[in-house]
Structures are given as structure tokens and as C-alpha cells.
């Protein structure tokens, strides 16, 4: 499945800038509409190390109202969290009604890192597929919009990015020994990711594979998918702002600021 993804997709810089001016304002308007009608949104990012998850989250949130979202960088469960059902810690991080919760990695670590690194028995990560589908179904039935991204790059591109980061003293800390270890297990993670995508693709929680070789294309696809998903959720609630109210940039100064941020 993932081997057939066209990783050569790209977006010209001029086109990217033009689209982003509209999309960032559109997302701000959708965030306000979601708050007004109480629609919660969950956005999660999975994918390869150095595929651009952090970059996408930084740009996605930079022009949103900070009172309306929370970013959760997910790491290994702590000792007290391991003493409870494994999804408990994620339930606690779900956004309130009208809010946006953004996960930098998520509950899918159960069927990726924990599976490939042998941290849990096979019976547990296989059962996790059912747990995740039921979890997402439950929150979707409660009105949550769920947006799931897999940021995809090739093994060769990942190696190139690791080496580029390591050459810069200010960026080298981004690449840890465990990142190279995961890189060497690329094929094993690829197999786990493909099974994850197949087993957890649902009507209420669809996956979006982001071709992340070209930064402009990947960011555009992320923004467009989030905006379209929130718009569909608001339309289902009859709470969608009128078209003329979305994506309008009022003055040249604001437009210049947006362009400077996304250089």
C-alpha cells in the first residue's frame, strides 16, 4: 500500500503561498465556528521520524486562537499510567466541546513502536486494533471530528534528513540513537504501518496519507484536509459559516505577515 504512494508530489512555492493565505484564515474561522457550536476536533499525526510532523503542527497552530486548542506530544506511558487501562491516558487528553486537540503521535504507538520493538505481547497489540476502533467510534458518536495523518517519506529521504540535521550543531539534538535504530527497522515499521492503516480505517476515523517529501505539498495537504474535515462536521450541525466569511484576508499587512511566516 505505502510503497505505491507517489512521493514525488510537489507544490510550487508561489502556489503554496497563495493557498496558505486563504487556508490559514479559513481554519481560524472554522475554529471559531466550532467553538460557537461546541464541536470538538481531534487531529493526530503519525508517521516517520523527520517526516515533518512537528513542522506541520507548528504552522497549523501558529494562527489559531491559543485558547481553543491543546497540543499533546505523546511519549511512553508513565509508571502510574501503566497501572490503568492503556487508553486511559488518552481519554484524559481529549479536547472539551468546542476545542481542538492535536496529538504529536498518539494511541497508535500501541501497534507501531510497542509492536515492532517487542514491548508488549502480540495478543495485546492485536487486541489494540479493536480497542482503537471502538474508542474512536465512541467519541465520533459523541460529535468529535477525527482527522488522522500518516506522514510518509522513503527510507532514503529519512536518511538524508537525519544526516542534514546532524551536520547542524543547533539541530543535531533532534536525531537520537533510537531514531537511527528505527531507521534500520524501516521495513518492519512499514509492515506495521500498513496493517495499522488497513485495520483502523473507518468511516468515522479515516486516514489521510501525506506525501511528505516536498514540504510545501505536505503542509498544503494537511491544512486542506483539516479544513475540509471541520467544514463537513460543521455542515452536519448546520453551523457552517457563510462562504463569504471564510478565508478572507482583510489587509496587505496581515498578508505580508503570513507570507513571512511560511517562507
CATH-defined topology? Rossmann fold
Q: What general outline do the C-alpha atoms trace?
A: globular
Q: Strand tally, please?
A: 5
Portion in beta strands: 5-15%
Strand order, main sheet: write it out: 2-3-1-4-5
Low-confidence stretches: 249-260
Compute the CA-based radius of gyration. Answer: 19 Å
> CATH superfamily name?
P-loop containing nucleotide triphosphate hydrolases
Q: First CA to last CA: what distance?
A: 33 Å
* Average pLDDT figure: 93
Helix content: 40-55%
CATH top level label: Alpha Beta
Descriptors:
alpha/beta; Rossmann fold; five-stranded parallel sheet; 11 helices
Give an overview in words:
It is a single chain. The chain has 263 residues and is of the alpha/beta class. It has one domain: Rossmann fold (3-Layer(aba) Sandwich), CATH 3.40.50. It is 51% helix and 11% strand. The protein has eleven helices and five strands. It has helices at 13-37, 53-61, 79-82, 88-91, 113-116, 122-141, 155-167, 177-184, 186-200, 215-236, 252-261, and strands at 41-47, 69-73, 100-104, 145-152, 207-211. The protein has a five-stranded parallel beta sheet, sandwiched between helices. The longest helix is centred in the N-terminal third of the chain and has 25 residues, at 13-37. The radius of gyration is 19 Å and the shape is globular.
Amino acid at each position: 500500500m505505502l510503497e505505491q504512494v507517489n512521493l514525488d508530489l510537489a507544490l510550487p512555492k508561489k502556489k503554496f503561498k497563495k493557498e496558505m493565505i486563504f487556508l490559514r484564515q479559513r481554519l481560524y474561522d472554522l475554529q471559531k465556528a466550532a467553538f460557537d457550536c461546541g464541536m470538538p476536533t481531534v487531529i493526530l499525526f503519525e508517521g516517520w521520524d523527520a517526516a515533518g510532523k512537528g513542522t506541520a503542527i507548528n504552522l497549523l497552530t501558529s494562527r489559531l486562537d491559543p485558547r481553543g486548542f491543546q497540543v499533546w506530544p505523546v511519549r511512553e506511558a508513565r509508571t502510574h499510567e501503566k497501572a490503568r487501562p492503556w487508553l486511559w491516558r488518552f481519554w484524559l487528553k481529549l479536547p472539551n466541546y468546542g476545542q481542538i486537540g492535536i496529538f504529536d503521535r498518539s494511541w497508535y504507538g500501541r501497534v507501531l513502536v510497542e509492536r515492532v520493538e517487542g514491548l508488549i505481547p502480540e495478543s495485546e497489540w492485536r487486541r489494540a486494533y479493536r480497542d482503537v476502533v471502538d474508542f474512536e467510534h465512541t467519541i465520533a458518536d459523541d460529535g468529535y471530528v477525527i482527522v488522522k495523518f500518516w506522514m510518509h517519506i522513503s527510507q532514503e529521504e529519512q536518511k538524508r534528513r537525519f544526516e542534514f540535521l546532524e551536520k547542524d550543531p543547533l539541530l543535531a539534538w533532534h536525531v537520537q540513537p533510537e531514531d537511527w535504530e528505527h531507521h534500520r527497522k524501516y521495513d518492519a515499521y512499514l509492515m506495521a504501518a500498513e496493517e495499522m492503516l488497513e485495520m483502523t480505517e473507518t468511516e468515522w476515523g479515516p486516514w489521510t496519507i501525506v506525501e511528505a517529501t516536498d514540504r510545501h505539498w505536505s503542509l498544503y495537504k494537511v491544512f486542506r484536509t483539516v479544513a475540509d474535515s471541520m467544514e463537513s462536521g460543521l455542515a452536519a450541525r448546520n453551523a457552517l459559516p457563510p462562504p463569504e466569511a471564510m478565508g478572507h484576508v482583510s489587509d496587505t499587512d496581515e498578508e505580508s505577515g503570513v507570507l513571512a511566516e511560511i517562507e
